[in-house]
Each structure stands twice: as structure tokens, then as C-alpha cells.
Design a protein that fits this description.
The structure is a single chain. This protein is α/β, with parallel strands linked by helices. The protein has 3 domains: 48 residues, no CATH class; 207 residues, Rossmann fold; 58 residues, no CATH class. The protein is built from 13 helices and 7 strands. Strands 3-2-4-1-5-6-7 form a 7-stranded parallel beta sheet, with helices on both faces. α2 packs antiparallel against α6. The longest helix has 29 residues.
Length: 328
């Protein structure tokens, strides 16, 4: 039975809903590979999504994000949550695969079906979040995981794209990593709902937390929310409960005054733009060598008869005039 307007469940969708973890893993592999044949399954599962709490963790390399996630996993499982982890790693320039291999660095009991860990390669995606991450998170949501933790690359770039996936973003820092004011310049302050000063057993943790609290007080706040600052130590497990309490506080805040719906609408808007951009780019690439009109534009560009801006405007006008729409 399907909801009104939904797509009949595919065999893959039924397997995911029935808790088949191997089928889930195979679907994720197909999503990572941008296999178009997986789209019917993603469409049929879409009405069963939107229930999981999606929490992003980002920050520079070496701050202990994986150790922190291990501690969070233990805490969340003790609370009875079904938890999935998506760890987005840098891509190997040789194999195209994940360099760090978070499935190795993250621990879980082999018999614990309430935990699912998946490492993904960023495949050169500049924002630190793989292009397929959103769809993978949705699969995990449909599979019944009520908490999905997304760890981003954090290899020096600003992982602001986590805001397009997670409802709550944790920025992880450590004492003496550098002047905390640099977080403002890096853009991390703009995405943080919670600051986590990890390795709190090191000297300087208290002053780092105090500086971040002062910075949070200076900013205008995003939609009235000022980032909370929590000190943790993944080594001895301290601060993990307060960290999750800070996440819950932000999630509760989102549930007031329609903020969650507004955030979801914004994220879906960005996704829609990306999907259309991807489809148009794929169509144009296919037409470069076969379409007569595109070939004429390229010839005119090559002879400098027109400039790229005029060519783009003409091509865009042609696309807008095309009456064909998305196929079911």
C-alpha cells in the first residue's frame, strides 16, 4: 500500500523497510556511483523519510571527530536510539575511494543491528560533503534509524554544505589548535549550532571554551539561536551527555515557530537546484557533439563571432522553450 502521490515500492525499497542491512548497503553503493537505476527506489522511499534527527559534525583534521562519534554512539545506544553514521572522507586520487576509511576508525559490536556505519568518498566535492550524502541519509532515515550522524571531511575547507543536510551542526575544535577567532574567518562560526571543545583534558580547554562563549555572545545569532559551547573528552567520556543535551536543545528550538519547516524548505530548495543543474549539465554534455544548434554556437564562439555570454543566453532560451519536462 502506498500513500497518495507516492511511487509503488520497488523490491529494494521493501528490503530497506524490512530491515535488510545488506540490501541497504548495496543501495548506498549504487547511490555513491550515481546509478540512475536506483532513482525509482529513492522515489518510493521518499514518503517514509523526514523523521530522523540528522546531526552534522565538522571541524579541522586532528580534533578527534571519530573518537567523539564513538563516544556519542555509546551514549545514544544506551538511550535506545537506532544510530547511523555517514563518514565522508577525502577521495584517493588513484583509486577514487575513501582515504581515511572511517569504518575502520569507528567501532561497533558485530551483533548490534542498531548501529550502521558507512564511509563515503567525497569524490573531490569541494564542500566536504559528498554529492550523494543527502540521498544516503534519506535511505538511512527510511531504514528506521532515528539519529543519523554525518562526519565531514574537515581537511581545511569550510564544510558549510553540511547545513544543507543536517538540522543541527556541531563544530569540533581542540585547545591550542589556533586562535579561536579564526573560526569566524573560516566561516565555521556561521554554521555552528553547537561548539564542541574536544580533548577537554588538555591544558587550555577552559580558556578555549570561554573565548568561544564570548564570540557566541558577540554575534547576532542565527534566527535567534546562539551557539552553545560544550567541553568534552572522548578519552574518558566526559561531556558527552551535555553535548547531546545541547543538540536536543537546538532541535527543540527548531520545533518552535515553524523554524524546522522553514529550514527543511530551504534545504529542499537547494537540493532542487542541484538536481536541475545536474540534469541540465548532463544534457548539455550529451548535446555538445551531436546537436546541430549547439555545434553552430561552438563554431561562432571559436571564430569570436559571438562571446560565451551571448551563447549561454541563446542556449538557455532554447532550453526554456523546450516543452518536454521531467519524465515519470
Amino acid at each position: 500500500m502506498t500513500r497518495r502521490g507516492s511511487v509503488p515500492a520497488t523490491p529494494g525499497a521493501r528490503a530497506v523497510l524490512n530491515g535488510d542491512r545488506r540490501a541497504l548497503a548495496r543501495l548506498i553503493t549504487r547511490v555513491e556511483g550515481r546509478d540512475p537505476s536506483v532513482v525509482p527506489t529513492l522515489r518510493s522511499l521518499y514518503p517514509r523519510t523526514g523523521r530522523a534527527r540528522v546531526v552534522g559534525l565538522t571541524g579541522p583534521l586532528g580534533v578527534g571527530k571519530s573518537s567523539l562519534i564513538n563516544a556519542l554512539l555509546q551514549h545514544l545506544r544506551a538511550e535506545g536510539h537506532q544510530v547511523a553514521v555517514v563518514a565522508v572522507d577525502p577521495t584517493s586520487p588513484f583509486s577514487g575511494g575513501s582515504v581515511l576509511g572511517d569504518r575502520i576508525r569507528l567501532d561497533r559490536r558485530a551483533d548490534d543491528t542498531g548501529v550502521f556505519i558507512r564511509s563515503m568518498a567525497s569524490r573531490g566535492h569541494s564542500g566536504g560533503v559528498a554529492a550523494a550524502t543527502r540521498e544516503v541519509v534519506r535511505l538511512l532515515d527510511a531504514a528506521g534509524f532515528d539519529v543519523v550522524l554525518v562526519e565531514t571531511v574537515g581537511s581545511g575547507q569550510v564544510d558549510v554544505e553540511i547545513r544543507d543536510i543536517a538540522s543541527t551542526s556541531i563544530v569540533v575544535l581542540v585547545p591550542h589548535l589556533g586562535d579561536e577567532v579564526q573560526t569566524l574567518k573560516a566561516g565555521l562560526f556561521e554554521i555552528a549550532d553547537v561548539f564542541c571543545v574536544n580533548k577537554g583534558d588538555l591544558p587550555g580547554a577552559e580558556s578555549a571554551s570561554r573565548d568561544l562563549l564570548e564570540l557566541a555572545g558577540l554575534g547576532p545569532g542565527r534566527e535567534g539561536w546562539r551557539p552553545k559551547v560544550v567541553t568534552t573528552s572522548a578519552r574518558d567520556g566526559t561531556g558527552i551527555a551535555p553535548l547531546w543535551a545541547a543538540v536536543n536543545a537546538h532541535e527543540t528550538y527548531l520545533d518552535s515557530d515553524g523554524r524546522r519547516a522553514a529550514g527543511e524548505r530551504r534545504r529542499l530548495g537547494h537540493e532542487l537546484v542541484e538536481l536541475v543543474r545536474e540534469r541540465v549539465a548532463r544534457d548539455l554534455e550529451e548535446r555538445l557533439d551531436s546537436d546541430v544548434e549547439v555545434g553552430t554556437l561552438l563554431d561562432q564562439l571559436a571564430t569570436r563571432a559571438i562571446d560565451p555570454y551571448v551563447a549561454a543566453e541563446r542556449l538557455f532560451a532554447t532550453l526554456r522553450a523546450d516543452p518536454t519536462g521531467p519524465k515519470e
